[in-house]
Amino acid sequence: MGLLDSFFASSLQFANQAGLYALLSIIPLIIIYLLRPRPLKVKIPSLMFLMDIERKKRLNVFRKFLKDPLFLIQLFVLILTSLAVAAPFIMANEEAGGGSTVIILDASASMQAKTTLGDTKFESAVGQADKYLSSKNTIILAESVPVMVIKETSSGSASDALSKLKPKATSTDLSGAILLGRRLLPEGGRIVVFSDFTSWNGDDPDIAREVAQANGIIVDFVTVSARTDNVGIIDGWFEGSDYKLVIRNFNKEAQNVKIDVTTNNVNVLSSTLNLDSQSNGYFTVSKLSPGTTKISLNTDDALPVDNNAYVFIPKTMERNILYIADNAKSPSLVALNLVPYTTVKTVDTKSTPSFPGYSIVFVNSPLSSDAAKSLSDYVRGGGNAVIIASPGLQDMDLLPVVLDSVTNKTSLNVAQASGMTDGISIDKVDVKKHFKATLRNGAVALLEGGDESAMLAYWKFGSGTVIYSGLADPQGSNIFDPLNENVWNDFHALPEYPLFWKQLMEWVSGSLDVSEFNGKTGQFIKLPARQTVKTPGDSITTDLLLLDEVGVYGLPDRDVAVNLYNEQESNLAGSTISTSTGAAGAGEEVPVTAQTIRVPKYLDIYLIIAAMFLVFLELYYLHWRGEL
C-alpha cells in the first residue's frame, strides 16, 4: 500500500459508505458525451494527407473529453456531490465539551477580605480565572442568587469582562451557580469555581459538583485564601427611637474598638467598646434623628465591608403633635410619648393654643367655644384632629358622630378592618360607660358597640381628617380599680394599648414603618417600572432591584439604607468545604490545561460548497459561449 493510500486509510473515513455508489453517476455522463451527435464530415482529396493524423487521434478517444471544459466541470460536480453523500470525515483533536468553560466567581462579602499581598480574595480569583479561559466562556457571579455576566464569548472578551467585575456584599449560592452552569454546558464541558468556601446558602457545593459530574461535566474547585482577622457589625434593629447593634470580635485576642456615629455627616457620638476574643458586644445609639446615620468601627481588619452600618429615617417619620387635656397623666398621653420620633406638647383647656405647625392635635377634655372654632378652622385648612371621649364633651360640627347621652355597659366589635386596630384584642375590652353616638353622613365607623354606637370613627372635614374615639381615658387615681366609676373601660390595661396609638399616628400621617427604609443585602425590591436607581457605588436601571451593596440606595420615591448583618460572611475563618474524589478539592492544585479529545470533523459541507461553485461556473461558461 502506497503512502497516499495509507493516509486515506488512517485519516479519511466515510460515515455513509453506501453513498460512494453515487460515483456510478459518472458513467451515464461519459456515455452521453460519447453518443452526442457529431458534425457531418466531407472528404476533400487535397486533404487526404490529414487522414493519417485523424486516424491517430481516434486511438485516444477520451482526449477530446479533456479538451471540453463543460465535461470536466460536470464531472467534478458529480464527484464532489457523490463524496458529500458519503459523509467523509477525519479525526481531529478538540477541547472537551466543544471548548466550553463556565467560570463561577464567588462574589459574596467575604471575598472582599484582604490577602497578605494587599489585594482582595476576589481580585486574586479574577487573576487566576484568566488562566482557565477556553474558546467559549461563560461567567457567573455567585451572589445570593446566581448572576450571569456573559455567555459563550471568546477568551479575549471574557478576560475583559473579568477585569471589570467587583465583589458584592451578599451571601453566596454556590450550588445554584454550579447547577446553572451544568444546564449551559454540553457533555465534557468544564466548570471552574473560585471561592473561599467558608460559607454558602442552599445545598453543599460538593453535592452540586457530584450532580454535574454525573452529567459528564468536569467541575474544579479553586480555593482562594486571605487574612482571617476581623471585627464586624453582625446585626442591628430598632427599639423605639433607639438603634441597637451587635458587634463581634472574631479574633483570638481581645480588642478595643473605637465607634463613631454620624448623623447627616455630623458626628453625634464617639465611644470605645472592649470585646473579648470570640465574643459579642452590644452598642446602642439612643434617640436617632431623621436622616442618614452611619455607625463606623475604626479598626484595620481584613474585611472593611462589615465595619459600617447605615440607618435611614425619613423626615416624614418625625411628628410634632399637640395634646389638649386637663389630666396630665392620661394613659393616652403616656402612650403617645412612647411613639418613636414623636414630640408631644401638652396644654390644658385654659390655654388658647395656636394649632398651625402641628401635624396632629389630640383633644382629651371639653373645649371652649372659641377653642372649638379655632380647631375647626385648623382642620378645614388641612390639619388632623383626634378627639377622645371625656365626661362633659359637647357635640361639635367637626365630630364624625352626633353625641347623645352617656349610657352603660356594651360590647365592642370591629365594624371595618383598619390599620389602627390591626393586632389589637378589641373583643377583650370591657366597656362600662360610653357615649351613645350616631354616625354623620360621610363618616366611617371602625369600631361599634353592641347598641350600634360608633366607638371609633373618622371622616374628612374640609381638607383635614377628624378621628373620634369613644373609648374614654380613665380619670383620677386608681385607674386600674374595676370599681372606680371614673374608669369607663379597661382598654388602657391591654398590652396592645401603646400599639393602638402608634398605629393611629401612622394611619393619620400616612407614614410607612421605619423598616420600609432599612434592609439587608440579598433582598429584592420590586419597582413599578424600569427606573434609574442610585446605588452606593453606581447607578443602574431596572424594575427588580437586588440589594447587593452596603450603603444608601436612592430610589425615585425614597432612600433605603442597606447593611450586611451576616455573621457567616463576617467569619473569615469559617468551616471549609468537604472534598471528594474525581475532582480537585478545596486547596488542591487544579491543572490549567483543558482536556483534549478526538472528535470527527466532517468535510461534506466543504464539498457541497465546492460543487455549488462549479455549478455557477458552468452557467457562466454557457453564457459566455452564447448557449444560455
Automatic annotation (TrEMBL):
Coiled coil: none annotated. Residues 321-503 form the DUF7408 domain. Residues 514-561 form the DUF7406 domain. The chain crosses the membrane at residues 18-35, 70-91, 605-622. It holds the Pfam family DUF7408. Keywords: Membrane, Transmembrane, Transmembrane helix. Residues 13-88 form the Aerotolerance regulator N-terminal domain. This is N-terminal double-transmembrane domain-containing protein.
